[in-house]
Automatic annotation (TrEMBL):
Matching InterPro entries: 4pyrrol_syn_uPrphyn_synt_sf (IPR036108), 4pyrrol_synth_uPrphyn_synth (IPR003754), OmpR/PhoB-type_DNA-bd (IPR001867), Sig_transdc_resp-reg_C-effctor (IPR016032), UROS/Hem4 (IPR039793), WH-like_DNA-bd_sf (IPR036388)
MF-aspect GO terms: DNA binding; uroporphyrinogen-III synthase activity
Entry protein name: Uroporphyrinogen-III synthase
Species, as recorded: Micromonospora echinaurantiaca
Keyword terms, alphabetized: DNA-binding
Annotated DNA-binding residue span(s): 269-361
Biological processes annotated in GO: phosphorelay signal transduction system; regulation of DNA-templated transcription; uroporphyrinogen III biosynthetic process
Residue span, OmpR/PhoB-type domain: 269-361
C-alpha cells in the first residue's frame, strides 16, 4: 500500500468501527488520533423495545422502516432472547420494507427477509416523501430508530394518516472516557490535525457539544485548514447546516471514505520552490525533494507561518504568536534551529539580521 497519507494526522470519531477505519488510514501512512464522540448502548432488555415488539405482533405493520444494520440485528437478537424471533420475522415478512441504506439492507437479507425500496440519499426525509407519495393513510408503520427519536419523521407520517410504532433498539451515550475527545477538540481548534472523520450525524453534534466555548474555534478550523470528512450526506448535514464545507464519498462505505481523503488531502498541501528544493507542507511533516521529514509541532508551526508569506521576513514576535502560550523569543530561536535540523536543508530558512526569518524562495 502506498503512503499517500504519510505526514497527515487524522482524527477518528467513530466508536464501533474505529479500529477498522484507523487501520485503513494507517495503511496509507496517516497518523491517527482515536477519539470516539459517542458509544452505542444496546437496549436488548429494555421495556420499551419489548413493548414495541409486542405492538408489532398485536397489530402487524404494513410498512417497516429499517434505519440501521446494527439496529435491525439487535431487534431480531432481542426477540430471539424473548422467544419472539419467529413471530416477528413472520410479521416483518408480510410488510413493505424500506431499507434506509446498504447496512440496513444487509441486515434484512441476512435475516431471510426482503426489502422493497431504498432512498438514493439514505436520508429519512426521502423515505418519508416516498411513503407519503405511496400513501400511508390508515396504515401502521414500524420505525426502527437509530439511536434517538425522530419526531419530525414520526409527525410527518402521522399527519399523513399513519400510525407509527417507534422501535428503540439502542441509544447513543457519551464515551466512557471523554479525555480523547477533548484532546481531539484541542487539536482541531489549534489546527494540529489535517482531517476529522465522522460516520454518523449524532457524532458531529456530540463533538460540537463537547467543544463548549471552543465551538466557534472548531467550526472556524473546519471551514479553513481542517478537512471535515463524512461517510455520507446524512452524516454531513449538521456541518453543512453550519456552513462547513464537507468531503463525502458517493457511497457510504468506510473504504470510499478513505479514498476520498486520499484524493482530497494531498490537493490541500502547499508546495514551494525554496533554496533549490521542492518543499511541500503536510500536517506534521514536510516533504523535501520527495523525502518525508516529520517535524514537531513548534517547528511545523514556524514553517507554516513562513510558507504563508514566502520570501517575506517575519519577526520573532510574529513567529512567537504561532507557538503555544508561555513561549518566549528564545523558543522561536529553538524552533527555527529544530526546523533547519528536521528539514536537513539548512539554506531553506534564512536569518535576516535584526529583523527575523524568511524562506529563501527561488
Amino acid at each position: 500500500m502506498r503512503d499517500e497519507l504519510a505526514g497527515f494526522t487524522i482524527g477518528v470519531t467513530a466508536d464501533r468501527r474505529r479500529d477498522e477505519l484507523a487501520a485503513l488510514l494507517q495503511r496509507r501512512g496517516a497518523r491517527v488520533v482515536l477519539a470516539p464522540a459517542l458509544r452505542i448502548v444496546p437496549l436488548a432488555d429494555d421495556t420499551e423495545l419489548r413493548e414495541a415488539t409486542r405492538a408489532c405482533l398485536d397489530r402487524p405493520p404494513d410498512i417497516v422502516m429499517a434505519n440501521t444494520g446494527i439496529g435491525m440485528r439487535g431487534w431480531l437478537e432481542a426477540a430471539e432472547g424473548w422467544g419472539l424471533a419467529e413471530p416477528l420475522r413472520s410479521v416483518l415478512a408480510e410488510a413493505y420494507v424500506v431499507a434506509r441504506g446498504p447496512k440496513a439492507r444487509g441486515a434484512i437479507r441476512a435475516a431471510g427477509l426482503h426489502d422493497q425500496w431504498s432512498p438514493a440519499s439514505e436520508s429519512c426525509d426521502e423515505v418519508v416523501d416516498h411513503l407519503r407519495r405511496r400513501g400511508v393513510a390508515g396504515q401502521v408503520i414500524a420505525m426502527q430508530l437509530h439511536g434517538e427519536r425522530q419526531p419530525e419523521c414520526t409527525l410527518a407520517l402521522e399527519a399523513a394518516g399513519a400510525t407509527v410504532i417507534e422501535v428503540p433498539v439502542y441509544r447513543w451515550a457519551p464515551p466512557t472516557d471523554p479525555a480523547p475527545l477533548h484532546r481531539l477538540i484541542d487539536l482541531v481548534a489549534a489546527r494540529l490535525v489535517d482531517a476529522v472523520t465522522f460516520t454518523s450525524a449524532p457524532a458531529v453534534e456530540a463533538l460540537l457539544r463537547a467543544a463548549g466555548d471552543r465551538t466557534d474555534a472548531v467550526l472556524a478550523a473546519f471551514r479553513g485548514d481542517v478537512l471535515a470528512s463524512c461517510v455520507g450526506s446524512v452524516t454531513a448535514e449538521p456541518l453543512l447546516r453550519r456552513g462547513v464545507p464537507v468531503s463525502a464519498p458517493n457511497r457510504a462505505r468506510l473504504g470510499a471514505l478513505v479514498r476520498t481523503i486520499v484524493d482530497e488531502l494531498p490537493r490541500r498541501t502547499v508546495s514551494l520552490k525554496v533554496a533549490g528544493h521542492l518543499l511541500t507542507l503536510r500536517g506534521h511533516a514536510a516533504v523535501v525533494d520527495g523525502e518525508l521529514r516529520p517535524l514537531a509541532p513548534a517547528p511545523m508551526a514556524v514553517l507554516r507561518a513562513l510558507a504563508h508569506s514566502p520570501g517575506r521576513v517575519l519577526s520573532r514576535t510574529a513567529l512567537l504568536r504561532t507557538l503555544p502560550r508561555g513561549a518566549d523569543e528564545h523558543a522561536v530561536e529553538m524552533a527555527v534551529a529544530r526546523l533547519r535540523a528536521g528539514l536537513r536543508a539548512p539554506r531553506v530558512v534564512q536569518t535576516v539580521v535584526k529583523r527575523g526569518y524568511r524562506l529563501r524562495v527561488d
